[in-house]
Amino acid sequence: MAHPTIPATVIGSWSFPGWYEKFIGDVRDSPDRFGRLDRDEAVRDAVRLAVDDQIRAGLDRITDGEMQRVDFNLGFYEYLGGLEPLPPSRRWGAPAHDQRDRYRCVAPLSAPAGLGTLAEYRRLREVTDAPAKVPVPGPFTLSGCIEGGDVYPDRTAITEALVPIVNAELLALDAAGVDFIQLDEPSFACHPGSADHFLDVVARTVQGVRAYLSMHMCFGNYRARAVGRRSYRPLFPQVGRAAVNQLALEFASREMAEVELLAELPQTMDVAVGLVDVKNTWIEPPELVAERLRLVLKYVDASRVSVTPDCGFSQTARHVATAKARAMVEGVRIVRRELGS
Q: How many CB atoms lie within 10 A of CB 29?
């Protein structure tokens, strides 16, 4: 793929503007107050703002900011048939993953109209022709909020039911001309017990897709909290055999721990390294981003490296996300100049 040396990009989500977050809450609480065109106008305006923020920050590849989604992957369950919502297990106290929406299967899973990402991409292309990618949650991650009920015996069976659904979504994006697709599978990093099964699931999920494929594996970021032990070691070196072009990994929040694992990847595998921490509000100086990037380049050639935040910015205040993105871009440019690029 043609791109600048060490492209700077995002993982997927961008911070919601304050007015848009209020609008979403108002629509949820009083849906009759808003017509179809009211909702459509708000979504389009939010996408334009997310695109503008990213381009102004200097990012080389952008997204629609996931303005058309709910909390990274929660909105996707609205597209799945065969589910019933479960009552929240906890509403009060410190926010955490046990407050996420959950569902139970009452019939075999289906998605007759797809998962909605194709409409998202078309709306993005109405706004910009800038290089872009489309993130799509993987089947194992999607299965994490679903109980099998009397339909599926366990999470493995739910994942298997979701593989063809996600694969169909990826193929539709590919056919629509999307040249960069990101499979979001943080759950594999948090539950690394069966790497070979994981690789088989990934291979079948991306089967037939011709677009450049990245796979994002962080350690969770719901309400700025991780959800598992933050170590990639159990997945290495096997993850280097994944049927994707790039691995997107989280390093900044872990103070660059395990960066040496990158040396175990095959020369054919690209990496997107998270060099700014989306879970804190401190703005990393560009010089620190450059220092972290130089460390990465000790283990992997610059031609295979992209730079990202650790995760999406949906849980980060917008002014912080914008400042972090700008610092990340400037840090990358420092190293590019040192490399003569």
A: 8
Cβ–Cβ under 8 Å, residues 284 and 293: no
Parallel/antiparallel/unpaired status of strands 270-276 and 246-250: parallel
At 341, which helix (H) or strand (E)? none
CA dihedral 160, 165, 166, 170 (to 10 degrees): 140
- The DSSP element (H or E) to which 333 belongs, if any, is helix 318-338
d(CA 168, CA 177): 15
Nearest partner of 201 among 185, 213, 182, judged by Cα? 185
- pLDDT, one tens digit per residue, over 154-211 is 999 999 999 999 999 999 999 999 999 999 998 777 677 788 889 999 999 999 999 9
3-state secondary structure of 270: strand
The whole-angstrom separation of Cα 263 and Cα 255 is 18
For the beta carbon of residue 32, count every other beta carbon within 10 angstroms. 6
Q: What is the pLDDT of residues 135-144, one digit of tens each?
A: 999 999 999 8
* Helical axes 117-127 vs 36-57, angle rounded to 10°: 60
Q: Which position has the token pair 């055999």?
A: 241
For the chain, domain boundaries? 18-69+116-338
DSSP reduced 3-state for 82: strand
CA distance 171 to 92: 41
In angstroms, the CA 130 to CA 102 distance is 36
Write down the H helix ranges in 72-116: none
Alpha-carbon span 89 to 213, nearest angstrom? 36
Residue 87: is the preceding peptide bond cis (ω within 30°)?
no
CATH no., domain 18-69+116-338: 3.20.20.210
Rounded to whole angstroms, how far apart are CA atoms 67 and 75? 11
For residue 1, what pLDDT band results from cuts at 50, 70 and 90? very low
Neighbours of 144 (CB within 10 A): 20
How wide is the angle at C-alpha 163 spanned by C-alphas 239 and 67, nearest 5°? 90
Local structure of 265: helix, strand or coil: coil
